[in-house]
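Regression report. Comparing outputs from two consecutive submissions.

Submission 1:
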Amino acid sequence: MKNIVVLGSSGSIGVQTLDVAVNMKNYINVLGLSVNSNIEILKTQIKKFKPEAVCVNSSQALESLKLWIKKQKLKTKIFLGDDGLESLVSLKKIDTIVCAITGHAALNPILKAIAAQKNIALANKEALVIAGKIIMDLAEKNSSKIIPVDSEHSAIFQCCAGQKKSQIKKILLTASGGPFYKYKKDFSKITVAQALDHPTWKMGKKITIDSATLMNKGLEAIEACVLFDLPIDKIEIVIHPQSIIHSMVEFVDGCVLAQLSNPDMRLPIQYALTYPERIKSNIKQLNLTEISKLEFFKPNFEKFPCLAIAINAAKKGGLWPAIMSIANEAAVNAFLNGKILFTDIAKIISKTLLNFKGQSKIVDIKNLLKVEQWTKNYAQRLIEAKQR
């Protein structure tokens, strides 16, 4: 049995992870869960999995959950807030932490879990974008494995198995193109509902908007650099609308290896939890004879400026990816709340980067905290200016 904790268990990846756990009940034991505010989903999950401990993010939720657990005659411990997450990921019996927390809030729990020598099934890209070297160095020091859950990075991870880094010519990072790759109307008129209507994947709101702007692929390019220790010029982004090939790796001899499967996140989740083993799943098998075509296109950087911004930030390095990612999170949140236009997302990120005057090269926790606060404040001022 592998004992796991699912951070962000009420979100899309968290729910799918628990679906995998149900179908692998003889292999996976859910020992802990955490949510931000969705207590009703958490109650359902507690009933089903009876974890040893859970964590919530508000005192009100804590008291409500305490009464409910007592009424249910359960023995589940309840932790609270950031300190609670640290306690949850440090439980002695835990083998693997599934990090499905969205955005930059995942950084601290990831660092705490690695410090506790846990393996990480990572479904969060922002933490690696802002603090990749810090995370990877700490993982090496503590002998913690970081197994990617993103379908693209899982594909690359599998294609690179047994290969030397020196043999890799480049990574071909595939992208669905989102809902607007062939869109020819005014991008400034795009609504939240349109941007959330992804043609292939069902994901959380933040990642879905990132997919619509193609920022998600920029973040994934930086994540690939960190995970596989490669420069950004060895990452090539390829639009592949069918989302059957999840990524490819080209080697110096001209051989290209690809990982193919139906677009279902449960497969990379399962692989991250069973690695290095492969176990039979109930996921729909790929039938190549049912697929009429597989298409590949070059990305349009002018049409999707967020992608160009991310690649440029990766080239500059240092704190630039962190500033870019933090500003993007603020802008996406503003768009989701109807405060700015779809096209304002890229403008706010770009202006924030252009106006940063601080130390941009040294990446440590102290500098990250400073730059995070400055970026949030500056991006917020730009958002408020758009509303006047």
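Submission 2:
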Amino acid sequence: MNNIEIIDKIKSEHRELLSLPQTLVEVLRITRDEKSSAEQLARVLMYDPALTAKILRVVNSPFYGVPREVTTLTKAVVMLGLRQVTALALSASIYNLTQKWDTKIDRIRFWRHSLEVAIASRMIAETIGYPHAEEAFVAGLLHDIGLLILEKSFPEDFAGIYQKAQKGESTLEIEEEIWGTNHARVGQFLLEQWNLPQAICDAVGHHHNQYPPNCLNSELIYSQIVALANLLSSFNIMRDFRGEQDLELENRENIRDNLNLTLDRLKEIQVKLLPKTVEDARYLDIEIGSVDDILMEANRLLTTQYMTVESLLCENRKMQKQIARTQMKEAALETLKTITATFNHYINNATATILGRAQLVEMAIKNEEMKDKNGQVARAMDVIINGVNTICLVMKELKDLTSYETTVYHEEHYIIDIEDKIKKQLKELENMPR
């Protein structure tokens, strides 16, 4: 099955997913028209009393700190702006819409993660001074909606994927293996059917992409913002914490540099993210669990992350010890080379002296200057000379050996070759005529 087959199934069997409530359709139409006014948007929103109440509650929340209570929708739209109101309308409407779908996905965890990514996306956009931060918020909030679509369309297949993902396997890899597509691309398709701004659709579709260094394409800014926000999120939809993989860490660093974010600014966002998520959930009426639940989950994640860090520190200590041992081996090798050279110097002098004396004795016997009636002295000289030659041979091989890299010592066949070479040379020494 591929992406086209997935989309065809959604179109044929779940057409209800492809359309938004009429009020929201009108809101999006008005927002796309640059000539639209706050009054026009307010008139459309009034057809949805629940949405109207939510917008008024938001504008009067401590987040905006208005000096007087705002009681009219037109004034609220003027104060918040068309984009902000559209973002609120989208968030509320899609949240309410999807809450009606049957699902085995833990909805509280789903929206906790989605809202956290949405807020992180908005904060990143504001930090780097990118316009229309509310569109980044919407893209962040809807970035995983493809999961709900896939589950609704393929409940049995998704149940197996969800079970594996709960154990720490990569959701994306399993989706690609089974369907030939993933929830990011399916989510993008759905949002395009809803006629959401293309920047939002692209950001949803690309939030799992790997971004190379110096990826400065302005069309990919929203996509990179949401991708980074997703990597910053502490609260995962799946219960099991896999930890950050090497590719995720590399992607996070690349995107951070591409967006010209310093590490300190990113840390500031992370510090503010949890309390901001709890605060925004309250006035947006998005259920993300009680504060106690969130703190317990945060504590669990911290414990898991602590254990991960502890494991990494242990591995680091092992690595440092290994490096230290390697350095000691290298230092020992250099010391061995020096000692061997010194030994060679003194032994060469000593053996040269011994051989010189032996030769003098042999000459004296030959010239009859020294008597050796039974030939015992000559035989003794042969033993001495052979012994000295053996010492010289071994010392030469030892000197050659210490000129190689350390790894040579671990090659057994090389050691055997040296032994065979010495034995062969000693045999030749024994057979040499005197």
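Expected: both submissions complete independently.
Actual: both completed, but the second showed a warning that disappeared on reload.
Relevant detail on submission 2: The CA atoms of residues 117 and 148 lie 17 Å apart.
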